[in-house]
Input
Amino acid sequence: MAEEVAGCNRCVLAAGREHTVFGEGSHQPKLVIVGEAPGAEEDRTGRPFVGPAGQLLTKMLAAIGLAREDVFICNLLKCRPPGNRNPRPDEVASCKPFLREQLRLLQAPMILAMGSPAARELLQTRRGIMSLRGRFMNTRDGYRVMPTFHPAFVLRRPEAKRDVWEDLKKVAAELGLDIPKR
Ligand code: URA
Output
């Protein structure tokens, strides 16, 4: 499937990318993280969440006792939109079969949907992340999802960190994780 993604030409983003970003992590993950789309650093390296938002994500996971290797990290879109603009509906439509198949193969007990585009697509709603975050919801396919703010948003609005922490504590409780003492 990663090979299929690497050769994908289903939308205009194929023309501008350096690398596709399939996702990485455990193939029997406790949690699947779904972000929006690769940024500059991800496009350059072909790996998800390795830029500034990724560094914050790694810390957020560590705060609930998870390493990147314990989870699977991927995005709604597998290619970088130019200038990190928002994903367009046709791009989401072209790319979403890949995410659907990843989720089917991974069969994770829980999904952390970070930011509006991921949460909206997974939950098939037009509601934004402000109203969605903080409560578990089920997708039509029966996956349990916790919507939360995207770490890139938290970098711009540090006051959002407190909300993300509340959401992560709920995820940890549901997964039966012990939160490491700081
Ligand atoms: N932002 C995302 O949504 N995904 C990445 O992989 C990196 C930044």
